[in-house]
């Protein structure tokens, strides 16, 4: 297998019987709840071609007849011939990522026109494992999202994380990033902090050419900045809100709100993971507010389209309580060019 092939994520459907998805009382097994983010201590039977990072939809046969879980392979397939009496040959470590509640029933799957030619479905999944081709995977997830809209954001995050973990060699990425930063700060002209109200217009889309394909690139940051400006200007007045304000240390702040003699700094992030948004924004916000020569701010606000999760809330609260850092997180939801706070 080539290096390129080894990083391509594969998709599977695992078929399991009631004794493996129900407990003795007929309830869903607790150890299949995705609340535990660690990999399972055991293995699950799989195809010999399974690789670490592959995604799996778990189909529950017989009693339930539905797709109920999204699972990730946490190891390559390995031999389990000596570990079972059922004749299973390969297994892998696994982690349950998501539970579909309610699950996607076999009846729902069979009613979906785009899946009418999918052979495993026509056979009612009469095997233990099926490989799912990328086009079918997209159709399946499109159907699931119709019943679970929040799943779209979750799926985008794990696909994004996999891409950056497997497609971008970390040493090269870190070196390129550091080289860019060194060039930036060695040549930069520092302008003192000076509040200027307003929001100059920016383009919101362009076209990027890549090998063998062209993709539309939505400049979400610009769209969110415009939407955030409009919302804050309506609330605090246009004279008290500005964008791309010089920080005084050679960088610019996405959005600044003036409150009398105080300032609030807003940093916009577009990553689908709230954790990544927090990680990326905190360093910039602290530098804007506390680097020698900068303008101190009384509020530092991370802005994202993604709703913060419970761990993110606990993390920010710890920073506020332990270090008195004025950090907050706000979700912005765009609606036909406007925004509202989540």
From TrEMBL:
It comes from the Bacteria. Residues 10-140 form the EVE domain. InterPro entries: EVE_domain, PUA-like_sf. SUPFAM superfamilies: PUA domain-like. Transmembrane segments: none annotated. This is EVE domain-containing protein. The lineage of its organism: Bacteria, Candidatus Moduliflexota, Candidatus Vecturitrichia, Candidatus Vecturitrichales, Candidatus Vecturitrichaceae.
